[in-house]
What we know:
Elements: H1 2-5, H2 11-25, H3 33-48, H4 56-66
Helix pairs in contact: 2-4, 3-4
Amino acid sequence: MCERLGLPFRPEVIRFLLDEEHPRRGVRLSACHPNDVLSRVAEICRYEGVPLRLDNGLVERACRDYFTEL
Length: 70
């Protein structure tokens, strides 16, 4: 997914998404999440006019935007 979106693959950030963001939000992992969350990361970078990158802060922002709070 990272390659398709032009994001540099960083396994530690993907681990952060799986081990911290999903459990913190009480969200079960779904097949659409890699595409949806990482696409949101790329959208944030493009909107802000910065090079595409993958870091914990961007993943956290993307999850906050993507997942609704109960």
